[in-house]
Amino acid sequence: MSNEPSIEEIRKNYQRLPDKKLLELASYDATGLRPEALQALKEEIKVRGLDKGLNAAIDVQTKGLNPAELSALVSIVRKTPCPHSQSKNKALNAIQVNAVKSFIFLTTSSRKTVIGCEDCLLKINNKAIITTSLLGWWAIPFGLFRTPVAIFKNLQNSEKAKSIETTDVLNSFVLSHGGALVKIGNNESELLTFISDATS
Predict the structure, then answer these.
(1) pLDDT in tens, 56-86
(2) What is the pTM of this model?
(3) Peptide bond into 18 cis (omega under 30)
């Protein structure tokens, strides 16, 4: 016998969810739902009058983005004010900033997606280079190996940050968050909040 809940149980579960949880499920977590659960979710959204881009967000998660849809979403993101400076002077882009810190026998490595204007990307990336250069070497053996790798990757980031072309990092970000971005659409303040939260 299957342990999966029946479609009626799924409907009742959706009916019990507050609007906020239903919105989160539709925007971010629809990918793993089976077809009948997706249909029940769409029905509950319609009953509550919440369908403001949510069905499109669900479809993006289950079917993916075609090249035209990806390009349109990337364009919207790039026109958003910079999450760090609120500047609109330059199109946003994204890099993955690497940092290494060592403490005698302990080495910690981090890699973080940063979205921002060219000036802010360079500032954040340069700070990571300085931090890693000063604090990355001091643990044996990993500090000695990971530090030059992180510095090299961040030096490459400097060129990517200056590029007028969209980076692979930004394309990947948009692909991974397609459902939420479709729902937000051109709402600048919501988009700015989402980018800040998703990369914090």
Answers:
(1) 888 888 888 899 999 999 999 999 999 999 9
(2) 0.81
(3) no
How do residues 15-61 score in pLDDT, each as one tens digit? 999 998 988 888 888 888 888 998 999 999 889 888 777 888 888 88
* Beta bridge partners of residue 115, listed in sequence order: 94
Please spell the DSSP secondary structure of 137-158, one letter per residue: SSSTTHHHHHHHHHHHHHHHHH
CA–CA separation, 124 and 94 (whole Å): 11
Cβ within 8 Å of residue 184, ≥6 positions away: 53, 190, 191, 194
Report the interhelical angle of 67-78 vs 188-198 (nearest 10°).
100
Residue with tokens 């390009």: 71
Phi/psi-derived region of residue 170, left when phi > 0, alpha when psi is between -120 and 50, beta in every other case: alpha
